[in-house]
Write a structure and sequence with these properties.
Pfam families: BATS (PF06968), Radical_SAM (PF04055). Its EC number is 2.8.1.6. Catalyzes the conversion of dethiobiotin (DTB) to biotin by the insertion of a sulfur atom into dethiobiotin via a radical-based mechanism. It contains twelve helices and ten strands. Mean pLDDT is about 90; it is low at about 335-353. It has a single domain (about 15-325), classed as TIM Barrel (Alpha-Beta Barrel). It is globular. Helix 2 packs across helix 8, helix 3 packs across helix 11 and helix 8 (about 215-225) packs parallel to helix 9. It has helices spanning about 5-15, 20-25, 35-50, 90-105, 120-135, 155-160, 185-195, 215-225, 255-265, 280, 285-290, 310-320; strands at about 50-60, 110-115, 140-145, 165, 200-205, 205-210, 230-235, 270-275, 295, 320-325. Strands 1, 2, 3, 4, 5, 6, 7, 8, 9 and 10 form a ten-stranded parallel sheet that branches. The N and C termini lie far apart (about 40 Å). By secondary structure, the chain is an alpha/beta fold.
């Protein structure tokens, strides 16, 4: 049976764009039509990305100790969340963590540090890590996520070989004051643009489930398109105990799939990544997310555990997908049960960054 969203997919595949009104309709699709909607979004995904999945791996360089008050974040100012907090990893520790992810099949390493923004010394430190990774693994992409950048820092990171810079818009501008007071939406938008203007691709996404309206989900999806994001992580709120959004549960697996489908229609050619909170909110429908998304994080997040990396790799293989950048048969290793990604092997590493 042909549905109205199939005609939208046809238009997207011939170079057209989605309207905000159509994006609203996608979020309102009846449960009975959800699987046909996923199939329509999957046509777009397969047109631009085939059956490949880009596997990303997070390395948490600095955990906790953040002066910002983002209400969703376990590392926020005043957070009582029970997480590991530690200073900067040594370059050797960071490289060992990255190597573990690459050995397991990751073809994009995300170097993340908490805080408002890095010092020039921090940028130089990350630049050294990037340079070594690119020398040893020229086929692996490296993304940095260090907060709000100051003058000259984007250029330094790009010069050292950093492929992308992540700074999520997180939510709609109209909702931003409800989730953070120590910086504003415009500072985030400017950082994404600054990174793009200085040679790095823009990795920027959202967190769903923070009390926003459906209209605000559409608003942030189109804002990400306007800012030129070509890698769009879609997180689902992990309501950490000890944060203002603790106990804030409002998403169902089907709502999550509708959100992912809407983002794919708005960003047809982008790397749309199913990110933090997928295990908690999508639950048994996780495999369907890869019909829409062509990217995921392998294993754990910044301050919370994901499902074991081996299960992620098995899910990709069971769907008949292959890992982007892997060998001719899509070979990948297995993520060790514990990896040296932080002080004390096995530290859980949240995409709510």
């Amino acid at each position: 049976m042909f549905h109205w969203f199939d005609s939208l997919a046809d238009r997207i595949l011939t170079g057209g764009d989605l309207t905000t009104e159509e994006a609203h309709r996608i979020l309102e699709v009846d449960d009975a039509l959800l699987f046909p909607l996923v199939a329509a979004a999957g046509r777009i995904r397969r047109h631009f990305h085939g059956t490949q999945v880009k596997v990303n791996y997070l390395v948490n360089l600095l955990s906790g100790k953040c002066p910002e008050d983002c209400f969703y974040c376990s590392q926020r100012l005043g957070s009582m969340a029970e997480i590991l907090r530690y200073p900067w990893l040594s370059n050797e520790e960071a490289l060992a963590a990255a190597e573990a992810g690459i050995a397991a099949g990751a073809r994009r390493v995300c170097l993340v540090a908490s805080g408002r923004g890095p010092s020039n010394r921090d940028v130089a430190r990350v630049g050294e890590i990037v340079s070594t990774l690119k020398q040893d693994h020229p086929g692996v992409e490296v993304c940095a996520c260090l907060g709000i950048l100051s003058a000259g820092q984007a250029e330094t990171l790009a010069d050292r070989g950093t492929d992308a810079y992540n700074h999520n818009l997180n939510t709609a501008e109209s909702h931003y004051a409800n989730i953070c007071t120590t910086h504003d939406y415009e500072q985030r938008r400017e950082t994404v643009q600054h990174a793009r203007e200085h040679g790095m691709s823009a990795c920027s996404g959202l967190i769903a489930g923070m009390g926003e309206t459906p209209g605000q989900l559409v608003e942030v999806a189109f804002a990400l398109r306007a800012v030129g994001a070509d890698s769009v992580p879609v997180n689902f709120l992990m309501p950490f105990d000890g944060t203002p959004l603790a106990g804030h549960e409002e998403l169902t697996p089907m709502q999550c799939l509708r959100i992912l489908a809407m983002v794919r229609f708005v960003h047809p050619a982008a790397d749309v990544r199913v990110a933090g909170g997928r295990e908690q909110h999508l639950r048994s429908l996780q495999p369907l997310s890869l019909e829409i998304c062509n990217s995921l994080f392998l294993g754990d997040y910044l301050t919370s555990e994901g499902q074991p990396g081996g299960q992620d790799l098995a899910m990709i293989a069971d769907l008949g997908f292959t890992i982007w950048g892997a060998g001719p048969r899509g070979e990948a290793g297995h993520l060790p049960a514990t990896t040296p990604r932080a002080r004390g092997a096995g530290t859980p590493v949240a995409a709510n960054a």
